[in-house]
Design a protein that fits this description.
Blueprint (H helix, E strand, L loop, with lengths): L8 H5 L8 H5 L5 E6 L2 E6 L9 H5 L16 E7 L2 H6 L5 H11 L5 E5 L10 E4 L19 H9 L5 E5 L1 H13 L7 E6 L8 H9 L6 E8 L8 E6 L4 E4 L1 H11 L17 E5 L12 E5 L2 H10 L3 E6 L1 H7 L2 H18 L11 H7 L7 H18 L3 H29 L1
Parallel strand pairs: 4-6, 6-7, 7-11
Antiparallel strand pairs: 1-2, 3-12, 3-13, 4-5, 8-9, 9-10, 11-12
The structure holds flavin-adenine dinucleotide and iron/sulfur cluster (3 copies).
């Protein structure tokens, strides 16, 4: 039996770290720093300083989070587009996050918002404070990379009186909620804007794109989904240091995303960010959407509702339906897949002693009598093997697998066409 580990070494050992930085924000001995490993940034503990208090593991969303699958009443939902054309043009979807934050900061409703800074793939992406009057342009657009929220969570814990806006993916939001809870703090003064999240990539996506073709200039910014690159919800856009850019077609995303995702995302049950005050994502419902971009928003709490009502005039808004949002984001299919992955993970780690940080979403699966089919086991192993390819700079092999995948995609397409002609 393995020795019980009381700190987040356990998370990194099990491949469940999402590099959110929240462990470092709560560590009383300040003994956690981040190093680039396995194509991402992982926490490393200075063992000489660590006092084994276990706080880091208690807040860690890799292990500790509660997933409420359904709310009793369907929450209020909207399809939204910012009226400010500059914000809309530069946004990932409908510019909801930026236009709302600008209004709330401008009018003094909130003092500070923690948002991602510009593009720099040589260092760990992180959030930093933005105040009234600051330009939010550089913060716009989704970073499909792990983002450190260390500064944000530290600031929130140190400044209980300040009204602060936090923007994050579901795992970061769970980490923040854990940190507030173990410090006995309410979330009254914090507005949590949660992004829908399917997966975040490791930095290998950037490394791979840098080498993938001979570009004339070094890559400056990499957007995994960008509406300027066309496609229903956006394709890949690469910007170079000499000011030029290229757009890559949708199939490139499908061909590389399996190799470069974080392992934790294989088990993530919370695509719609259920702990947030407002959850925001792209509008895939095909209702009231627009080629210029449109966001779907779920209003989950009173703070969320107050913020939304305060800012409503800034947007073109239409009522939307929770069931439509869920089905447009393929939630049921995803949950089925993730549950199976969770079951397999829990079975593989079955013999382990756990004292702290039982992964909340895995605990019930460890005892599950649900049958694992051979097909599901094979699929899980394939997913893990794909991740290893992205991790080890094995880009030659990755290219080979891309070709196989492309072949599979073409065969699938041909089969669909054949069926269509037969029916016709
Ligand atoms: C990793 C990731 C995966 C996503 N997956 C989906 C999905 O599957 N389906 C879907 O509908 N939507 C998804 N989204 C959300 C979507 O891409 C948009 O971020 C969202 O709709 C908000 O768009 P907007 O136009 O309102 O925001 P914008 O005005 O473009 O502003 C974006 C805001 O998000 C912040 N931000 C960007 N990236 C991060 C990050 N990684 N961590 C914390 N804050 C960040 C920026 O600081 C900025 O404030 C994902 C986002 C991310 C970051
Ligand atoms: S156990 Fe405590 S002291 Fe050690 S790294 Fe974790 S939070 Fe820091
Ligand atoms: S708290 Fe975040 S950064 Fe720290 S180990 Fe857990 S997931 Fe990784
Ligand atoms: S899919 Fe889940 S674990 Fe992965 S980055 Fe998104 S919220 Fe975090």
């Amino acid at each position: 039996m393995t020795e019980t580990i009381q700190n987040i070494d356990r998370t990194t050992e099990d491949g469940l770290c999402t590099s959110c930085g929240i462990c470092a924000a709560v560590c009383p001995a300040s003994c956690i720093h981040f190093e680039r490993q396995k194509e991402t940034y992982l926490p490393v503990i200075d063992d000489k300083k660590c006092i084994r208090c276990g706080k880091c593991l208690k807040v860690c969303p890799g292990y500790s989070y509660t997933y409420h699958a359904e709310q009793e009443d369907a929450p209020a939902c909207f399809s939204v587009q910012a009226k400010d054309k500059k914000i809309l043009k530069n946004a990932s979807s409908g510019g909801l996050v930026t236009a709302m934050i600008r209004k709330l900061l401008q009018d003094g409703q909130y003092h500070v918002a923690f948002l991602v800074t510009g593009y720099n793939y040589e260092n760990q992406a992180e959030t930093r404070p933005f105040y009234k009057g600051d330009s939010l342009r550089q913060s716009q657009q989704s970073r499909y990379l792990p983002v450190s929220q260390q500064k944000a969570v530290r600031y929130i814990l140190d400044n209980p009186e300040e009204r602060i806006i936090f923007v994050g993916t579901s795992c970061a939001v769970h980490g923040l909620c854990n940190a507030l809870k173990i410090n006995g703090r309410s979330r009254e003064n914090v507005l949590i804007i949660g992004l829908f999240c399917n997966q975040a990539m490791t930095y290998s996506i950037y490394e791979y794109m840098k080498r993938y073709r001979r570009w004339n200039s070094p890559v400056k910014a990499f957007h995994f989904w960008d509406k300027r690159a066309g496609g229903r919800t956006g394709n890949i856009r690469l910007e170079f240091q000499n000011g030029t850019h290229v757009h890559l077609p949708a199939r490139e995303k499908a061909l590389v995303s399996d190799f470069c995702r974080q392992e934790r995302c294989l088990y993530c049950m919370d695509k719609l960010n259920v702990e947030a005050d407002l959850s925001v994502g792209d509008n895939y419902t095909q209702k009231n959407d627009s080629p210029e971009g449109s966001s779907n928003m779920i209003v989950r709490t009173m703070s969320g509702r107050n913020a939304w009502e305060y800012c409503r005039e800034e947007f073109l808004a239409f009522n939307s339906d929770y069931a439509d949002i869920k089905s447009s984001q393929h939630i049921d299919r995803r949950l089925e897949n993730q549950q199976m992955n969770n079951l397999l993970f829990a079975q593989r780690h079955g013999g382990r002693t756990v004292e702290e940080g039982v992964p909340c979403d895995l605990a019930s699966f460890a005892q599950s009598v649900q049958k694992v089919t051979r097909k599901a086991r094979r699929q899980y192993d394939r997913q893990l093997a794909d991740l290893k390819l992205g991790e080890r700079h094995a880009y030659g092999l990755m290219r080979w697998k891309r070709i196989v995948k492309f072949g599979e995609m073409c065969c699938g397409w041909l089969l669909v066409k054949l069926r269509f002609y037969r029916r016709a």
